[in-house]
Specification:
Layout (H helix, E strand, L loop, with lengths): L9 H23 L3 H13 L1 H11 L4 H11 L17 H4 L5 H14 L4 E10 L2 H13 L3 E6 L6 H15 L3 E7 L10 H7 L4 E4 L19 E4 L3 E5 L17 E2 L1 E6 L2 H17 L5 H4 L10 E8 L7 H12 L3 E5 L3 E2 L2 H12 L3 E7 L5 H8 L3 H6 L2 E5 L3 E2 L3 E4 L3 E5 L3 E2 H6 L2 E7 L1 H16 L2 E3 L1 H5 L3 H11 L6
Parallel strand pairs: 2-3, 3-4, 7-14, 10-12, 11-17, 12-13
Antiparallel strand pairs: 1-8, 1-9, 2-5, 5-6, 6-8, 9-18, 10-15, 13-19, 15-16, 16-18
Length: 485
Amino acid sequence: MSFDFLTWPDGLLLAALLLIAQVLVTIHVMRNKEEVRSAVSWLGVVWLVPVFGLLFYMLFGVNRIRRRARLSRQKRGLPPRSGTLVSPPGPKLTDAMPLAKNRWRAHDRLAGRVCATPLALGNNIKPLKGGRGAYDAMIAAIDAAEHTVALTTYIFQIDQAGRRFIQALTRAHERGVQVRVLVDAVGNLYGLRPVSSLLRRRGIPVAVFNPARFSWRLAFFNLRTHRKLLIIDGHRGFAGGMNIRKHHLEGADGKPRVQDMQFQLDGPIVSQMMDAFADDWAFSDGEELPEEVWMPPVAPVKAGITARSIADGPDEPRQKAAMVIESALGAARERVQIITPYFLPEQGLVSALKQAALRGVQVDILVPEKNNLPFFSTTAMAGVRQLVQAGCNLYLSKPPFDHSKLMIVDDCWVLFGSSNWDARSFKLNFEFNIETYSHDFGAEMGGLVTARYSAARKMTLEALDERPLASRIMGRIMWLASPYL
């Protein structure tokens, strides 16, 4: 029997090629997807909507960025990321807190192995109220820089806020400071005026993270850097969730448009921040930043805060931030406070939250009543009923939109940074968070957020059920799409 494909009718040939492609993609899904829900979801879209599903999977379902990041690390003489779990060399929690409870010692071991990052002892961490105050502190630090300035952000707009940073960076560059700016390809286009072009015209080295081109690179355009870091002379850093745009400044009425928080850090933790930036810079630009210039030794501060960086991204063998958060929820005994603008956690985190509440832990979750992405609020409300049923407290904050990203456990463990509580942050974005161990800092942060809970509206099961039927139906429909994120 002869199988001369050239003699087949065009329609039959296309159908055969489509079937072969579906089978190959199915094999790829089965080999590479670790979560059953994700694998089933991808197989569903590939087989039920063949042409669209194949294209969608090729664009967003295949992680090609790991190979590129691995090559970037090898160029810098760093070991490739792997699935091997080993405790990093360096201090342990008991070195800073001899009386630390066993559950936090166990959490420290897990976080160290998952993040492959040691604890940094002796840090000063100062919370900055989001908006003009945070920007003023960051710009003052740039103006005081003597050797290096490293800045990475998701959104960098040429507006009332962005122009101040551009001017400060230009001043630093003109007085001989080495400046490097890394901006995400999508965030670079906010406002339709690329800040990268303006910075280049001023002679400032700038790189764009993961730009889209009509080539094979388009296949991982969905993977973005969401990190927000500023490092001055390798010893002072700023981290949090604030982008650079006028939305963080007051409106014409003098009231803030957005609530947010940023943190100023001094101490050895800044070296971990700089290492993450150097990795991203080499990945995006190819330049290796010499450690003797960009990463000078940083002495610990006496009686300072113990901290660890969590540099997470799709090039990592596991979801670091999600695992660390789940572990912290397991260690909770009294109270968990979560503030996030986007709350759509996957089942592992949902289960950890429910278990904490059922153990008797007070779990308080604060999300915006009105989101800047309306569809997100609708979708999020579709999945929170099970948490409220389990005893979690859900609060809706009144405007202005709260963009803060913060988690506090038992007033002794704090997590802050760039991650939201959704699949995009935990799976697709490059994020940077910092966990801290300190009773004083934990109590300070707990006191800062108490007023936000007091001013918010608590959602009950009755309130969730009283929402308009159309909104509830639309939320459940959109909720079904969450695995494809």
